[in-house]
Structure formats: C-alpha cells, structure tokens
Amino acid sequence: MSLIQSLKLVIAPPHPAARPFLLASGAGAVIGRLLPFRVTRWLGTASGLFFGFCLYFFRDPERVTPAEPNVAVAPADGHVVSIEKVAPPPELDMGDAPVWRIATFLSVLDVHVNRMPVAGTVTKIAYHAGQFLNASLDKASELNERNALRVTLKDGRQVAVVQIAGLIARRILCDAEEGMQYETGERFGLIRFGSRTDLYLPPDVTPLVEVGQTMIGGETVMARL
User: Fold this and answer.
1) Rounded distance, CA 222 to CA 65, Å?
2) Are 37 and 99 part of one and the same domain?
C-alpha cells in the first residue's frame, strides 16, 4: 500500500453515524477551551481528543469490490478468528445442517462499516438482545447482542451475515430492510466500538482465507460461490 493510499484510509470521511458524537465532542472542545476555568479547559482538551478518536473510528473509506462474479467478500475489516462448520443462526430459519462460518474480529482501530458479502436479496433480519462479552471469543456468536441477516442469492442458495456487539459496543446499526436488494460490497450497517462479524456460507464452497488473516471489508475474497 502506497503512502497516499494509507493517508486516504486514515483521513477518509466519517460515516453519518458519527455526527452526534462529533457535534457533542466538538462543542465540548470549543466551549471548554473558551471558558476561563481549569476544569473546563481539561474537559475541553478531553473532548478534543475524543473528537479526533471519533473521526478515526467512524472513517468510511471507499473500497474496490472485485469484478469477478459469484464471489463472497469480507463483510468487515479485521482479522479472522475462526473458520468452522456450525449450524446457522436459528433465528434465520436456515435449517440445522452445518455450514461454513467465518468469524472476523474488529478492534477499535479497524474500519467498522459493514458491507454486503454477496449480491442478493435480504429475506430475513433478526435482532437478538444479549451480553457484551469479548467479541473475539467463540461464544460471542451465541451470547452477545447481535443482528442477523439472511441473504438469498439468485440461484436460491442462502448466505447469512451477523453483526455482533463486542465488549464495549452498545449499538448495532443496520440500514438494510427485508426485501432490499444489494450488490456485493455495498454498505449496509456499522457496529460501534469493537465488534465481530460472522459470515455463514453454503457447505459446498471452500473458504479461501485462513485464521489470523487480515480482512479488508468489501475487497478480500473469502470464497467463490
């Protein structure tokens, strides 16, 4: 990656979900520095630092989705923490037969915008309130707060992508609605402040990534369909 590409990633425009955080911290920074009190100046400095963190955390860089058809791309940035065959999320009504699950953990330093891994129609969305365990743990898939989407491909096969809240995350954002059609790599949501994204693929495909590998949401090819 060139220096210019690296700078574009760091200074990318923020996702719209950042607006309330940026407005609040920006106002706090200005007011805190203007008032002639030591405490308010300290709060102003802290607000300014939080403003900078939010600019970085909510960055939403453009991505170049592979032109190759019939591929599943990474739904999020981060690194792969597990690849195994398990039953799909029961709330999505995809049966009990094991399918591939590729789990990607996002640290607070990763881009947290979620992208659609495949081209298809969202046929079911199921939200589940839960705990806020460390998202890198395997049991986070079942116990943590999560939002699951079932996506039906043109050939009738089904893929699922699950947004999972992490240790300090408290809000999952999902712009998708049932019946909406997406192209591969399109944005559909975001998870705040540390999270995990699980991708469930048909059992007849072969994952092309490995545990520990770094993912680039919307770009890294995870499997060919």
Assistant:
1) 12
2) no
